[in-house]
Recover the amino acids of this structure.
């Protein structure tokens, strides 16, 4: 900010009472940059990504201050400790924090307390303006103060908290920082009640969840966790006579890492996930290097071809082996639940999966082709599961005589099937054979 030059006493209170803050129009941005270049010790700023520019004006519309808010710093030790979030939470939720990158009180138009007044008015509307423009609010604002230039009085007067000095790094590009050796004082402020609690929560509130949805997932597995995963997928037979950069087991391991990291599973999403893998991760996942030593990332067509012809049963065995290594064997006494779901990127196919309840062990699965339904697929899945002496639960679609006989006579299992009113014969038979069972809850 610039140093204050006192106006005549008669104008001071009038300016404080009448000053207003508004968003800058696109055509006003060149003037904003010109003022910063002439009067701000850091010069002009051309932020990228989400940002808002504010102008403070008097009653006559004359400019008295300009402010720029933009993306927060990626790494701030004191701020991250103050918020209390994890590294992954910071990566996914950083858009909820903004930086007051520039604040200039225009010379010859300032009075005492004008800086704190303008800042207060700006922060009162900042989150709502961000919501209107970018579809989400902001919860925390940060700023840096050069101790050689200013004392930070404007921020402390507005209730900002000083956390300590920065480490003396500055951002020169989107993802590039250099050491400048001049630590700044770091100030922060919560824009709403319990802002920090929201940022460190296990799950964001629904109104904030879209921020995480817009952040591309990245591989969260360490090299030591990836290596044993790849060993299990090596048992899946290769379908190609000649393999260049991407062995099949390497592609399957990338798919597994994507699922474990919460990424989408379509070929396009998998290719995007693979591009974000580091060179070390790609090497560990079995990708073969190019002549220049670079480990490339598989493309969308590469994933599409592999997923269309791969041996599904072999993948199932590899997944079960990996699960047994990580979690041990599933409990024998638990209920086996079979249910079909259609993945978002399944091409119209649904997957019938068997899991143990409540431990949620994966026991096996099968693809339900468009030309059939779950009933025959379930019966082909039974022999792959260890069902002897166990209860098996299926929904009303599977309430069929042949399914019940198959479970009991062929596999020694017990069944728990749902009967609805659209099966009147079975429904009436149950009413005759079983005494009336009172409802667990009254109507």
């Amino acid at each position: 900010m610039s140093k204050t030059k006192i106006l005549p006493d008669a104008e001071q209170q009038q300016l404080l009472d009448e000053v207003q803050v508004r968003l800058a129009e696109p055509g006003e941005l060149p003037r904003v940059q010109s003022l910063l270049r002439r009067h701000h010790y850091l010069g002009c700023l051309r932020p990228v990504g989400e940002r808002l520019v504010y102008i403070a004006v008097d009653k006559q519309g004359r400019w008295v201050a300009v402010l720029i808010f933009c993306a927060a710093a990626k790494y701030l030790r004191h701020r991250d400790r103050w918020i209390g979030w994890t590294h992954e939470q910071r990566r996914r939720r950083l858009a909820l924090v903004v930086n007051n990158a520039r604040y200039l009180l225009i010379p010859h138009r300032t009075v005492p307390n004008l800086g704190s007044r303008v800042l207060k008015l700006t922060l009162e509307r900042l989150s709502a303006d961000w919501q209107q423009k970018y579809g989400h609010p902001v919860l925390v604002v940060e700023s840096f103060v050069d101790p050689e230039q200013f004392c930070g009085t404007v921020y402390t007067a507005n209730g900002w908290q000083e956390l300590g000095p920065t480490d003396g790094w500055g951002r020169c590009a989107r993802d590039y920082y250099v050491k400048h050796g001049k630590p700044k004082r770091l100030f922060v402020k919560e824009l709403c009640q319990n802002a920090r609690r929201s940022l460190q929560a296990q799950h964001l509130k629904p109104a904030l969840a879209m921020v995480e949805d817009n952040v591309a997932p990245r591989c969260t597995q360490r090299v030591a966790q990836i290596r044993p995963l790849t060993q299990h997928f090596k048992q899946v037979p290769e379908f190609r006579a000649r393999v260049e950069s991407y062995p099949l087991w390497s592609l399957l391991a990338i798919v597994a890492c994507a699922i474990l990291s919460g990424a989408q599973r379509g070929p396009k999403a998998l290719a995007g996930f693979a591009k974000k893998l580091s060179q070390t991760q790609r090497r560990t996942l079995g990708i073969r290097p190019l002549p220049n030593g670079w480990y490339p990332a598989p493309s969308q067509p590469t994933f599409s071809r592999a997923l269309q012809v791969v041996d599904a049963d072999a993948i199932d065995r590899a997944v079960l082996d990996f699960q047994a290594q990580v979690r041990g064997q599933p409990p024998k006494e638990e209920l086996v639940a079979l249910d079909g779901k259609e993945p978002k990127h399944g091409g119209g196919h649904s997957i019938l999966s068997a899991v143990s309840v409540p431990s949620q062990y994966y026991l096996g699965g099968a693809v339900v082709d468009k030309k059939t339904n779950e009933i025959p697929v379930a019966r082909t899945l039974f022999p792959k599961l260890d069902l002897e002496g166990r209860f098996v639960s299926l929904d009303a679609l599977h309430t069929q005589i042949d399914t019940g006989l198959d479970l009991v006579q062929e596999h020694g299992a017990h069944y728990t099937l749902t009967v609805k009113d659209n099966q009147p014969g079975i429904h009436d038979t149950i009413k005759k054979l079983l005494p009336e069972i009172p409802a667990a809850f009254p109507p």
Remarks:
- The mean pLDDT is 88.
- The first strand starts at residue 20 and ends at 23.
- The first helix runs from residue 9 to 18.
